[in-house]
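This part of the workshop introduces the protein records we will be handling. A learned vocabulary of local backbone shapes supplies the integers on the structure line. Getting from the letters to the tokens is the skill we practise here. As an example, a complete record with its sequence and its structure tokens follows.
=====
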Amino acid sequence: MLTLMRSWKWRQRGTGYLRDGRLKEGSCSRDPVLTDMIATILIDSLSMVNNSSPDSDTQNYSNANLGESAALRDLALRLLKYNLPHPEGLVQVEPQLLVKQLPEEWLTEMEIPFPEGSQILGSLVQDRAVVLFETCFTVEEVSQFYRNQMQALGWNLVELQLGSGFLSVERAQRKVFCRSSTGPSLNVSSKAMPNERTEVRLDLEPERKLGSICAVRDYHQCFQRNVLPKLVHLPNAQSLGGGAFSSEGRAMNACDIIRTEATLASLVAHYVPQIEQANWTETGRHQNNLFNWSSWSLIDENQNDWRGVFLILQIKDIQSCYYLHMQASCINSI
């Protein structure tokens, strides 16, 4: 268990705060597998040398491993030193990689809670701080946890416009919180892992006079509005096409390819209510054992008349793969 230096203030049910120098135990007893590449490199490079007296061959092999691990760690640090464009100019900060540890400021200044039973994987500290951990909470539960906890601590939720078209559950559940109009800001993103756990990434941006996401009052105004609904995939669906979206004047398209064990009928039952929730009205449907095609209409807030088509096509000869497409056109000028 990770030993830390300080105690957190809070004691709330379902929340893993630091207590007596350690993260509070949770209900997940299975140790998570560290899949993050940087964490793996660091664990290798910081492994303890065997205390027993090895023979010369073993000693040479051990020294070679340590040398390679040190080289990998040095390479990772060098790659992280590349300067990236920044609203306040180039920021040159020596990166720090911390295995199974939180950044020092998180122990002394920041009030950032963790779900009960969380396992800290590691941190990266540069011009901002990134923490990676695993939890037995689902992606949706992680999103709701931070929404409740951060707002209770006085942080404001930034309403993100994630665009239209097809989205993964992870992208749809992303959350950003701000403490003031200049920051700091906390970006919470997570993804489901094969071991029935969830990997969570916390990005903490410091206060900035320029370029802070917190300075934009209505963040969604930075994005072009469109009428296509936001269509979130099933939790276990794997996006293979990236959720492409295009918009040209009064015509919009979104498409994706997914792999899922769900049937065609269950996919229709999953996506159609989301289209209806975006105020579209179904005007027709045709289907067979390989595809489902439906037509839709919408009158937007400016009284523009939109017509749309939604298609789910099972890709023949490729098991459990489906092509998804939604298109919308404004017919006012036709």
The longest helix spans residues 56-80. The radius of gyration is 24 Å. The first strand starts at residue 15 and ends at 16. The mean pLDDT is 72.
